[in-house]
Design a protein that fits this description.
The protein is of the alpha+beta class and about 250 residues long. It has 8 helices and 11 strands. The strands form 4 sheets. The protein has a 4-stranded antiparallel sheet with strand order 1-2-3-4. Helix 2 packs antiparallel against helix 3 and helix 5 runs parallel beside helix 7.
Length: about 250
Amino acid sequence: MSADTCRVDLGSAYVLIVDVVVALVMEIIQIRAGAKRNGFSLCLFGIAGLFLSALWLMWLPDWLKLAGIFLTSASLVTILIGWLKVREPVFSFELTRKELKYLHRFGSWRLEWSNIQRVGIPRVRRGLTHQDMELVGIRLKDYEPLLAVISPRLASNILMQQRPLLLQGEDCQTGQCYSETLLEKDRFKGASGKEYRGIVAMFANRMIRIREVLGYDLFVFASELDRSQEEFVALLNACQQQAVNQ
């Protein structure tokens, strides 16, 4: 093992130890949302671009106006992307002694540590090898506590995000292929006998099918984290172990 690798491993272990100590003292660990990064900067760049394009269209000759229109369009798109980033919550996850909570502009979900069976990094087959995906997977013991707290709006958003993941099991490396398996049934019966309908039921059926493909029920994209996937998995496992030992 090289010296650089050792330093990286020691650094990750140090970050994990600090987070767990903070959790013991403050009873909460907050993970900053990667999707929120550079939101204000993009808005400022977009506004500056609009100002520049206004001057461009005002003072430059007509044959250069097309470039000014293009600059205006690019500035508006930049402002829109920046605004969407700004709207994201500051933190994407909150870890407490009792539960793991996910925060999104469309809603939230939470899981008690006792309901998490396994946390890991999903792998997908590429030819003769298996490659790690840029995801963190969470496998549940029971779906119903999650179905009771997730909002239909967030469930719908997750269904859209998971489409390319579901196609990984059908040899669709781009995730853009069409498949009838993307359509989920709108009824689901839980282990307790309770029947769910609509978007939440479709979300439950999707979890069942995507578990068959990737081995997990819920997925966290690397872009939503403020650290590497490996560090986040280690942190969740440490927090879960701490909760179990209490």
